[in-house]
Specification:
Distance between the termini: 25 Å
Number of domains: 1
Oligomer: single chain
Largest sheet: 2 strands, antiparallel
Strand content: 25-35%
Strand order of the largest sheet: 1-2
Shape: globular
Number of strands: 2
């Protein structure tokens, strides 16, 4: 058995679906760092620019860490 506990300093977070997608709503425009974590595949950070009144699309690929 194992568990993952993630503590964040903000309310913007989501869980990836079985299809590998996620959607976060209500994020103000600006520059952000999107962090993804998988207990077997590791962590990844990606800079994301959220436009005013728009949608930011991001494709992430987690892979085994060397």
């Amino acid at each position: 058995m194992r568990a993952v506990v993630l503590v964040t300093e903000h309310s913007f977070h989501d869980v990836v679906s079985d299809e590998g997608t996620f959607r976060m709503e209500g994020i103000p425009p600006g520059e952000y760092t999107l962090a993804a974590y998988h207990p077997d595949l590791g962590a990844l950070e990606e800079r994301v620019s959220v436009p005013d009144g728009g949608t930011a699309r991001v494709a992430l690929e987690l892979g085994a860490q060397e």
